Fold this protein.
Amino acid sequence: MGEEEGTEEEAGQVQTKAEKDILTMSSVKLQLQDKGNHVVMDNGIARVTLSKPDGIVTGIEYNGIDNLLEVLNEESNRGYWDLVWSGPGTAGTFDVIKGTKFEVIIENEEQIEISFTRKWDPSQEGKAVPLNIDKRFVMLRGSSGFYTYAIYEHLKEWPAFSIAETRIAFKLRKENGKCRFHYMAITDDRQRFMPLPDDRLPDRGQALAYPEAVLLVNPVEPQFKGEVDDKYQYSCENKYITVHGWICTEQPSVGFWLITPSHEYRTGGPQKQNLTSHVGPTALAVFMSAHYTGEDLVPKFSEGEAWKKVFGPVFVYLNSSTDDDNDPLWLWQDAKSQMNVEVESWPYSFPASDDYVKAEQRGNVVGRLLVQDRYVDKDFIAANRGYVGLALPGAAGSWQRECKDYQFWTRTDEEGFFYINGVRPGQYNLYAWIPGFIGDYKYDDIITITPGCYMYMEDLVYQPPRNGATLWEIGFPDRSAAEFYAPDPNPKYINKLYQNHPDRFRQYGLWERYAELYPDIDLVYVVGSSDYSKDWFYAQVTRKKDSKTYQGTTWQIKFELKDIDKDHTYTLRAAIASATFAELQVRVNDANASPLFTSGLIGRDNSIARHGIHGLYWLFNVDVAGSKLVEGENTLFLTQPRSVSPFQGIMYDYIRFEAPS
């Protein structure tokens, strides 16, 4: 997947709709109106209504449209914060977070900030999540939209619990009056007109292998007939979820956008995938979820564990076309420009909560990352476009499963230099990984960030796992299976967006194509003649035998060796991009022998079903005695034996076979 094009424009190069509104509406006074059961924030550009004391966004009036949210929905199902929580040994409970107390925090000519809090007490044990929650909503003078953030707090003496998900959700108007949000945009090359939610109902849609995937057989609008709709087809990695949303294409056209200027409060690091926008029309800002990772990304808090975290602010940005430019897609370009403005303004100066750390209270880390791999280059290699981040102290690579605290990430430049700015005070480890090299880097010393600090790191040197020269390799080490062969989908299950698209792996049902391509004999890859972009299936899935049974699969890698060193050890490096209730067994030259290596049961990513080309990263290093190899052709057998469902399997990132050191 390429870089999100939304970051290409420099802030300030394009005057955004918001900046124009500031010029024209700067004289309009902010107004806060208390209407009993509701409270209204109004800056002359947007008028936002929230229920009181619940703190649910019930109305957004903008550009002459009385409400951008779905008025046919109950008020509690329009714009809200929610979470899924559970106590020890109990099932998850979905909770639309409703406040019990309303408070005005700031009300002046420049800013309104209001708070909706919900306090926990022991009488609620087992009935409500043991958290104090403070939801904040902020409107600034001249701003085309509003901000929202929240503070979650668990006190030390409170009972244990876990959070499977927390997010903000907005449900927009789909078919009412002069405003219909039918066009969705996530990135430059992932945007389209979307079907209606009614198209997913039983009389219009056919449920497929799981509830989220529906074949549209009799949609309201005939152009969608025969397409698959599945919200997971529009998931995105955290690092690319900067701006997404919807456009009402009726004139004058209107855009509704969620802008996330920082990912510090999202769990799992920059590669973690989350939902964005999908049929509804729905727009989400997801902060915690187990999608594409499983239980590893569900934070579990014990009794006696104090915790507090600030999620957001997220900017709800509104824009509209002008008399001079009625092209609806201009609104996407404008939203990207506004996203750049918000990123440049992070950390914000306006949030009133003391729990939100301002710029002057944060620290910065600068340095350079190099790679030392003598089999690639005798000299140090600059870590070109490497990922460098600060997260809670732990083992190398632990950041991808870290789900309680903040993380701060950046990319190195071509020379390996990096700059991590705006880091909250605290103790961290510095972690890194570099495309083109396997494994994880961790700087051994704890890094303590203090307010206003600039920490200059000496040249950091990563020595990736390596014993000997590369004899052969398959793939490219980038923690993704995107370079491998993703087949054309079954013509009955098409999403037109992903036809002739780089993200062809997002089509529905690709796992079923394996049995069609390999009905009797599993995949055989011949080093030196096979091409992994054509001959290595994107996932080692189960083979469907009939409608209810599946079988494990064994892939073969055939390779030639000569002058074998029988007295020393060769090394197999198997980097895994994703695993779902799977097991990797390795055998050499005897398919029926006891495994030379087994991973045991690994992974709950569910990336195969959810059209993700990766999940959590695994690296296995397997010793292969020279005595097990033969002169001439050798065969490596990779078996995935677990076979209860079609979604069990492994996505490989990269495989390498090394000579003895």
Q: What stands out?
A: DSSP finds four helices and 47 strands in the chain. The mean pLDDT is 95.
